[in-house]
Specification:
Layout (H helix, E strand, L loop, with lengths): L7 E5 L2 E2 L12 H7 L2 H9 L7 E4 H5 L6 H21 L18 H11 L1 H10 L3 H21 L7 H25 L8
Parallel strand pairs: 1-3
Antiparallel strand pairs: 1-2
Helix pairs in contact: 1-2, 4-7, 4-8, 5-7, 5-8, 6-7, 7-8
Amino acid sequence: DYVLHTMVRVMKDGEEVKISKRAGSYVTLRDLIEWTSADAVRFFLLSRKPDTEYTFDVDLAVKKNNDNPVFYVQYAHARICSILRTFEESGGEIASLGAVDLSPLNSPSAQALMLQLSKYPAMLTEAAKGFAPHDVTFYLRDLASSYHSYYDAERILVDDVPTKLARLALIAATAQVLKNGLAILGVSAPDKM
């Protein structure tokens, strides 16, 4: 099966990059990767349905802030890895989090994050059936948003050990799903940013 894509417009420095078949001027994928990164190009191009018009904004793709969707998702993963490293450096074992009691995770932000995590298998199945990698990008942005909201609402490394372990288990699961989703798209999941 072949999926045909519409043409992609490219914006750089606030202006559309002019493409002319007659003049032989065009933008290649190599150009986009050199101007941004392979991760940004993959994530941005996969974030739209193939039959919709798309404008690739080079300026947005190089920003290191929450407006850039690939940065936003990768930053969520790196942020979690930083917390997990701190936990390990204090003598904790990530592998032990699989058997943790999750009952302390009763806050609205924790419940929202767990609900978002639970949607991953069904979303992935439907995205594969429908040739819809854009569904994966949308899901990852939503998951990153749920994680950032959770992070802003609750401290993870608290003194109460059962609560701390439950929160660590939740964010470790989030990091794994972010990493898996990014890997499906061919995008890296950095541990540090």
